[in-house]
Amino acid sequence: MRFLIFLLVVCLAPVAQAATGAGVMMRDSALRTEPNTAAEKLEALAKDSAVTVLQRQGGWYRIRSIAGNEGWVRMLSVRFKSRARTGVGGEIRTLSRFASDDAVATGVRGLSEDEQGGGAGTASLQPVHDLRVVPDEARQFAGAAGLKSRDIDYIDGED
Amino acid sequence: MSLRLLIVFSVSLSLAGCKSFQVQGVDLGALANAGKGLVQASSGVSDEEELVIGRAAGEQVLAGRPVLDDPVLQQYVNRVGTWLALHSERPELDWHFAVLDSDDINAWAAPGGYVFITRGMLELMDSEAELAGVLAHEIVHVLDRHHLEAIRKQAGLSGVMKLGMVAWQASQTSEAGSGVDPDQVAMAKKVEESAGKLYARGLSRGDELDADRKGMVIAARAGYDPWALVVVLQRIQSLKADNSALTTFFRTHPNTGERIEAMEPILADSSLAEMQGATLAERFHRHVD
């Protein structure tokens, strides 16, 4: 099955690529030359205008506008409308079971509680307890990939 | 709470340190230790009580969703999760992470340090940073005791002590079975029902947005690209709303677009705005693909 999915991904990738980064601006935004707010403005993008997402860097997407300009917008200002799955660098993976359309999640809270996922009753946590990793193992694992701790405060904000 | 329960609780406090002292199938030693923690806990709920409630809640999450039989993947997810938890305010908890064998796209937390993520959610991801973002979000629910507070509200119990008692009773009734005060059993059931409703309906919008914001910071502290969580949310946003793999996710979480909208005014000019970090896509795909 995994191999089948892999084949699907490989075969569909070139097709998906075209639609991949298809997104829509969620609000009026400035298209900038660099991924920071101090950078020069290239173009004023209106809310609902279509863009093609090419790449991500931190909280910014590099996009191409309808006018053909390439620059950076904040990722929180973009909504994807394609069926594609976008990766970290804008690469695409498409799985048939994730077929999608332009629909935005509307939220379906409040359905019957009888429909909750999972079966009734309970199951033992023992298999979960058996999986525990000790902190030193986690530190070693992080170090192997070059992950380094950073001192960052929480961000205040109102919900 | 009956007067008798209060008396039992008082007695148990004086027995703190006793290993086992059974009355009608009730282990006063265990209760006493929980009571000792209650006094020490700044949050009002002791770690012991939290763990009892967490285990009951975790067992509900596991019902119908078996733990995936893939030791290498489970170890990987536990290593990422434990590394993240070391950058939280509760590194001392016994954190447990588990991948559940389900096509659904979802993740849950339970009090005491339990975090669950589905195989379907993992298959939606493209990097370790994305995994870290989702696990860190769930870690915040544990840090801030979101489920405990919600259960307490839903159960209509006013006192912290009652919650601890009921939690402890819930654990005892499921094991001992009989010989327990019917009032206590009724309260235990009330908490169980509340936990069930909570996992069916999800936490409050405020708790979820809080977990998004704080989770991004925890991921960043651990060296990951904090914005990977937003990538996951945007990917979910682009999927069809009636996708059966997302039914439970959409029922138990705020509207995904709304979550992303809510981040904008808070994060756009924050310390995270231009922050980057490790994505580790290759290591992720060595374990997931």
Strand order of the largest sheet of chain A: 6-5-4-1-7
Q: Please tell me how large the radius of gyration of chain B is.
A: 20 Å
What does the main sheet of chain B amount to? 3 strands, mixed
Taken as a percent bin, the fraction of beta residues of chain B is 5-15%
Element-by-element helix/strand order of chain A: HEEEEEEEEEHH
Structural class of chain A: alpha+beta
Distance between the termini of chain A: 42 Å
Shape of chain B: globular
- Helical stretch tally of chain B: 14
Note down, in words, how this protein is organized.
The complex is a heterodimer of chains A (159) and B (289). Chain A is 21% helix and 25% strand. Chain A is an alpha+beta fold. The longest helix of chain A has 19 residues, at 2-20. Chain B is mostly helical and 289 residues long. Chain B has 14 helices and five strands. Chain B has helices spanning 3-14, 28-40, 47-62, 71-85, 119-124, 128-143, 146-155, 160-176, 182-201, 205-221, 228-237, 247-252, 256-267, 281-288; strands spanning 22-23, 26-27, 96-100, 107-110, 114-118. In chain B, a hairpin with a 3-residue loop joins strand 4 (107-110) and strand 5. The chains are: A alpha+beta (159), B mainly alpha (289). Chains A and B meet through strand 7, strand 8, helix 2 and helix 3 of A and helix 3, helix 4, strand 3, helix 6 and helix 9 of B.
Question: How would you briefly describe this protein structure?
Answer:
Chain A has 159 residues and is of the alpha+beta class. Helices cover 21% and strands 25% of the residues of chain A.
